[in-house]
Amino acid sequence: MKFTSNGVSTTTVGLVVVLVVVVVAAGAYIALNGSGSSTTTVTVNSTATSTVTSTATSTATSTSVSTATSTAISSSTATITTTLTTYTPPSGKISLTAGGSTFVNPIMQVWVSEYYNLSQSNPAPVSINYQAVGSSLGQTGVISGTFAYAGSDAPLPATALASYSSKGPFLQIPEALGGVAVFYNIPGVSTSLNLNGAVLAGIYNGSITTWNDARITALNQGVPLPAATIVPVHRSDGSGTTYALTSYLATQSSNWRSTIGVGTAVNWPSFELASKGSSGVAGTVSTTPDSIGYADSYYAFKNSLVPAKIENAAGSFIAPSVPAFSAAAASFSSALSTNATAPIVNPPSTATTAYPISTFTYVLIWANQSNEPNGWALASFLAWVVTVGQSYSTGLYYAPLPPNIVTVDQQLIAQINYNGQAFTSA
Amino acid sequence: MSTFPLRRGKNGAIADNAFRGLVFLFAALVPLILLAYLFELGSHSIPSINAFGLSFVFGSQWNPPREIFQVLPEILGTLVSSLIAIAIGVPISLGVAVFLSEMAPRGPREIIGAVVELLAAVPSIVFGFWGLVILVPQVVRPVEGFLQATLGFIPLFQHAASGYDLFAGGVILAIMIIPYVAAVSRDAMLTVPRSQLEAAYALGGTKSEVIRMSVFGYARSGIIAGVFLGFGRAIGETMAVTLVIGNSLQFAPSLFAPAQTLASLIANNYGETIGSVPVAALIEVGLVLLGLSLLANFGARLILRRFVKRGAQML
Amino acid sequence: MITRRGILDKVWLGLAVAAVVAALAPLASIIYYVTVRGISAISWNFLTHNFNQVGNNGGIGNALEGTFLVVALASAIGIPIGLLVGVYVSEYGTGRSADVVRFLSDVLVGIPSIVTGILVYSAVVISFPTPYNGYTAFAAGLALGLMEIPIIANTTSESLKLVPNSLREASAALGVRKWRTILLMMANSLGGIMTGILLATSRVAGETAPLLLTALGSTQSFQGWFNSVETMTLFIFQNGTSGTPNLVEQAWGASFVLLITVLGINIAIKMVTRRRIVFV
After folding, report:
1. Higher model confidence: residue C191 or residue A70?
2. Chain C touched by A1 (CB under 8 Å)
3. CATH T-level assignment (fold) for domain C44-273
4. Full-model pTM
5. What interface predicted TM-score (ipTM) does this complex get?
6. Which of A188, B196, C171, C237 sits between 20 and 30 A of A291, alpha carbons compared?
């Protein structure tokens, strides 16, 4: 050995002092910060707070719903008086973990943070940690019990639902309405490109390889598209956004339907890049020239990426926008009335202003809850989300839920129960 | 170990035996922990082993919706990115080791050696983040462009080079293994007896000839052990690689194609598996990775024990 | 006299110098960028607000808290066990068994951290999902603790082996109990032991992969050991990959804080002990 032992010398004393100082400083820091600042003030660029009071008093649905379901908020900062069942939880903070879709993450964080603020003066404030880990991970999390609920843009197929029925009903509750934006990073091109489903399918399955391909330039006369190889970016994790996009592409290309198919994860061609999460895709596109990617429209706008205009069935090129998402949902209202998880991609040609890649995103949750305070917290939170929570939508590039969907949601939320006792009634 | 008379008196014997018992108990934990790895990962992989058998490691489809789990592309990605890391990192490490053991004057030697070792202290996510935002756009992409312009006729360099690919993964792994390979090599070189060096100089060798013939020759086992260790470190690295390797589920035989390693596959897909077979498949990926790294580390440690006297404290 | 061999000699030696430059350049680049881009993100808000990707005022408050607590748990597990394993290898083991334990400990050091994450994920997170919260700070601390054990064991045994035998013999001659002797020896080699502990701690503080599978991440401050938790490394991962300029800046800021802490500990150790230490 080449070194000598130190013994108890100034050096060791020094090290011990360093360690003690670090420990004391950290302890002091934690003591000073406590559990106080657990929420940040979220500034949403809309009149969100001011509309809270107004929507609280008016019923959020067009059909008259008994006030037993809406959480009446007396002022924008003070108490929630839930006119739910007679259950009152024991006092103390309720902490829950949830996760899933990155598509819904922007508004979910706002909901979670606002609801925490609003519930502060209650004996049992509700603190929810939602982690955007992808729809697939959310699904498995809620099914296995590691998440209290999941956010997922892809509903579970009927076969899967049937296999879980032993644990009781599994609820899939539409909570937000948005659109999948397709964005790109082409040096020299700052305008919004016109694309259609066939071209998009061609880009992602490798049959269209350069930006100046005739099929793209035909839709974009006058745009200086370079002769560069396209670098498509997709999701590396299981994603409901992928599910929505591939559902749309399957309606547009029979080749896509039969080869790559529809799903939260599909057999993408090998030359494409993949990134984790919607923000990962947006990030990769912003740093990779000649790339193209897809994510919830919030991420495109947040990263200053220009979304493409997609041609809908009526032949118009539509950019993702709140009215366009609402139009898409409206065109499927009869399908949605029988199945709240029906897809809304590729609206019929009668919906002239609809955005073709719109999608709902769902809360997945077991109806039978195993813990009463937690079940109560979840039911109250969700009841708030589908009514008052919708006022935050437009500021974050989501469309508010259509009224008939809110009604359906409230009926679903009324199925959340503990030992058969529901927490809300619809 | 020296002998210890354990007094048979009552006072103190209990404490002594209790302490001794505790020490033995905790020491037994070490093999137990290793067994726990093998047992836990092995037993939880069984549904997947039953379902796929050897096709798990020889097939190329990772398709969760259709419940097909095969990891050959990821195994290839792991091995090839680590080999690239060795190809780039080992020469640099040897140069550093030579510099530190044979060339540098005493003062700078300590400082430079210490600074190289600091590279090992940088958290891997910081490496990955720096790689994602700085190394790939500023260094890897231009280099790839250059290679493609000059050597593009070779299929190895023929992919659309976005920068987030196998090559970038290899480069960042190379940087990360340098401190390890350099440390082990340097120690191996320092064990060369002075008599060997003096004899070589006496025969008229220049410094570099002496190094190449005597030092490398004598220290060869140690250097090889260091290479094994670096390789083992590279196969297991997760975060730095995941952020720059492109995350493709297929392996294309080109340096500039996006790829995936076993570790990045886990990082990208953990938990997205429900049902006994998919969960087992994910754990089986961990088992395969564990197996590969045990092979590399066992090999390295065995060589180290037999042929290299411990110089620096290698933990 | 300029000879071909002479020139070749210079070329080879020049290559060695070039290698040193190539090895140091990435470190310099990392430190440069982390400092330059990270410092602008630091503010009181940044240090106290919690992880938040919506809105512009997220921060590392809960990440700092989480890292500290999870590493504390890891150390509470790793230090006692690691110390005593080291004691065994140095003082109690018979030649063969001490060798085997030391060898296995070396092997444990080399196990990839993501595999440790899978072990705890498989054994704890999905096997015992505490109601409504499977990803827990406890699981995270356990995973990091498993990583600390072999590191601390190895440094401890090496340090103890340096204590001269004369001390053991003198102690025995005086009739001092073995366990008290060992405590005395540990006090004697406190420098080496503390070094090992600090290195293990700073090493696991920089880990991310096992935390993906155990801690999950959180937007709330610490909610208890059986709830998910945020750490500095997760923060950097989540924000650094987002591509949103504000979030990337926060990631640089967090990298800055983490890097100066980890490098600071390492530099302090090197300066104080003049000991060459590399985790292998």
Report:
1. C191
2. yes
3. MetI-like fold (1.10.3720)
4. 0.87
5. 0.91
6. C237
